[in-house]
């Protein structure tokens, strides 16, 4: 089956603090949402989503072994996904100290666009499916208009947070649901998560979907689909990330 690929524009910074744009392609799977509730299926052409390549679609929450394109500056080489995956378990609630609430960074003003509340409970698993305890985390995403910062483009960030996973490899994200970039053919709305664990750096991208995820979670250094539900408090989701080894 042919697989389409989406790219995300990831603002990353040199040591000097000057930001630049990095295009990170990834292979989404299963059933994604491009924004405003528009679901797309992983088999065929999708309006409003950038197409890059044809590959093999893995039957799992994420696709392992996708071509990541040119190496990302500021990131370690992507480890290869070589394990058979981990059985899906409930992410559960993280310790209070592992709750991340993204806000303005580097003196940036607060976002003026009101967004819908989003809570994601996440579990990070490492080697042999063991919890990745104490992993360093950096999270950033766009605001409710699809902008990273007040100047648009890769000016970052209205929403950024740093933290660590708890002793069970869990963290909680309390933020707003980001929007797609305000441009034609924008990729699906997403949240960037950088994970540093045992001298390796991973950058995964949370994208949103609906329905029941597969029972096995495959290793990734790319996309993680977060199934969402909605209640009176806003949007809720769970993410299980298996780090490629």
From TrEMBL:
Domain of life: Bacteria
Residue stretches making up the Intradiol ring-cleavage dioxygenases domain: 111-191
UniProt keyword list: Dioxygenase, Oxidoreductase
Pfam families (alphabetical): Dioxygenase_C
GO terms of molecular function: ferric iron binding; oxidoreductase activity, acting on single donors with incorporation of molecular oxygen, incorporation of two atoms of oxygen
Family designation: Belongs to the intradiol ring-cleavage dioxygenase family.
PANTHER family to which the protein is assigned, alphabetical: DIOXYGENASE (PTHR33711:SF11), DIOXYGENASE, PUTATIVE (AFU_ORTHOLOGUE AFUA_2G02910)-RELATED (PTHR33711)
Name this protein carries in UniProt: Intradiol ring-cleavage dioxygenases domain-containing protein
Annotated source species: Phytohabitans houttuyneae
């Amino acid at each position: 089956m042919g697989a389409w690929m989406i790219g995300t524009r990831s603002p990353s910074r040199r040591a000097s603090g000057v930001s630049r744009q990095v295009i990170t392609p990834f292979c989404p799977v299963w059933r994604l949402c491009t924004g405003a509730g528009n679901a797309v299926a992983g088999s065929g052409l999708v309006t409003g989503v950038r197409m890059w390549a044809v590959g093999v679609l893995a039957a799992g929450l994420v696709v392992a072994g996708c071509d990541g394109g040119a190496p990302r500056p500021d990131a370690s080489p992507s480890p290869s996904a070589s394990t058979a995956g981990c059985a899906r378990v409930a992410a559960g609630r993280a310790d209070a100290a592992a709750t991340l609430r993204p806000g303005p960074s580097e003196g940036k003003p607060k976002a003026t666009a009101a967004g819908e509340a989003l809570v994601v409970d996440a579990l990070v698993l490492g080697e042999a499916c063991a919890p990745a305890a104490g992993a360093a985390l950096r999270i950033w995403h766009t605001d409710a208009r699809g902008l990273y910062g007040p100047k648009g483009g890769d000016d970052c960030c209205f929403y950024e947070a740093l933290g660590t996973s708890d002793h069970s490899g869990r963290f909680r994200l309390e933020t707003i649901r980001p929007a797609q970039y305000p441009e034609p053919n924008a990729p699906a709305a997403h949240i960037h998560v950088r994970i540093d664990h045992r001298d390796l750096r991973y950058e995964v991208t949370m994208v949103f979907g609906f329905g029941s995820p597969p029972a096995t979670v495959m290793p990734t250094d790319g996309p993680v689909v977060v199934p969402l539900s909605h209640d009176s408090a806003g949007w809720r989701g769970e993410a299980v990330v298996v780090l490629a080894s």
